[in-house]
Amino acid sequence: MKRAWSLAIAIAITTPSATAFANPPPAQTEVHVAPAVDVTLPDSPPARRWVAIELNPVALILGKISANVILVPIDHHGIVLSPFFASTTTEPIYVYDAASNPTQLPQQSFTGGGGELGYRYYFGRGGPRGLFFGPSLVIADFVSKAQNGDTKSYLAFGGAADIGFQALVFDRLSLSLGAGLQYLATSTTIPQQQFPADVFANSGLRPRALASIGFAF
């Protein structure tokens, strides 16, 4: 019995421990995933334009020469100065009596100048760009001249509200289109005149069209 215990102890001492000699478990490798890269290129802002100078050719229909100077000191907010000169004459009108004898009504001419001071809110950035709307004040000094040479001076004053769109083609060529309403009153009552003289001679609310071309700086 003692020999059996001695043999068991000897085997226990000489047998290597499985725990001691077992290979350690492999170390876990951390995998780092790189964040997604946004390859979308942001739109570059448009070139900044501070001033646009335009002519208004559509106003020639009324016998009016005008221009716009548009200042945009900060994005979205513009100040518009529009000096103008106008000259128009009524067409000859004939009336006939019972014997068909014609009588020409006196012609009248209207000449004067003035200006508008307005504000525009632009939805675009980088100058006068995109959809816009805004009010303006109008004042002008006119002289009416009858066919017999009599003259009369008067003031025309009022306001307008416009909506339109302005584009800067190649960041330089300014093109504007729009429409609005204008109300003018006169300091002296003048008999009703023909179009387009009535625009400058008679008080009232009228539609107006905007069409301008020029350059931006």
Query: The biggest beta sheet, please?
Result: 8 strands, antiparallel, barrel
Low-confidence stretches: 17-21
Gross geometry: rod-shaped
CATH topology-level fold name: Porin
Average pLDDT works out at 86
Q: Give me the strand/helix succession.
A: HHEEEEEEEEEHE
- Beta-strand residue fraction: over 45%
Proportion of helical residues: 10-25%
Folded structure, characterized:
This protein is mainly β. The protein has one domain: Porin (Beta Barrel). The protein is built from three helices and ten strands; from the N terminus they run H-H-E-E-E-E-E-E-E-E-E-H-E. The strands form two sheets. It has an eight-stranded antiparallel β-barrel with strand order 1-2-3-6-7-8-9-10. A two-stranded antiparallel sheet has the order 4-5.
Distinctive features:
single chain; 217 residues; mainly beta; Porin; eight-stranded antiparallel β-barrel; two-stranded antiparallel sheet; 3 helices; 10 strands; 10% helix; rod-shaped
